[in-house]
Amino acid sequence: MDSKDPIQKNMESNDPFIKEMYTDLHNRIKDYQETDSVVEKMKFSDARGSIVIVGVIAAFLAYVLLT
């Protein structure tokens, strides 16, 4: 069985679109792995604006339905 990675195999494709797409994917994965990426948890303060907007819309809909 072929032990090549599917990305590597598609990078050698005869179709130029497939070859370019997988080469770009490989380069993006390599760049991501080389950088020190830190993912932070979402805080309540990050979502406060969205929560307020949803609350206003819900209050408006409740007002419309109850009157």
Largest sheet properties:
none
Number of domains: 1
Radius of gyration: 24 Å
Oligomerization state of this entry? single chain
Strand content: under 5%
Helix proportion = over 70%
Order of secondary-structure elements: HHH
Gross morphology is elongated
Distance between the termini: 69 Å
Mean pLDDT: 89
Low-confidence regions: none
Number of beta-strand segments: 0
Number of helices, where a helix is a run of at least 4 consecutive DSSP H or I residues: 3
Structural class: mainly alpha
Transmembrane segments: 49-66
Keywords: Membrane, Transmembrane, Transmembrane helix
Your description of this structure?
The chain has one domain. 0% of the residues are buried. It is mainly α and 67 residues long. The protein contains 3 helices and no strands. Helix content is 72%, strand content 0%.
Key features?
mainly alpha; transmembrane helix; membrane
Q: Can you describe this structure in just a few lines?
A:
The chain has three helices and no strands. By secondary structure, it is an all-alpha fold. The protein has one domain (6-66).
Topology (SSEs and partners):
Blueprint: H1 6-11, H2 16-34, H3 44-66
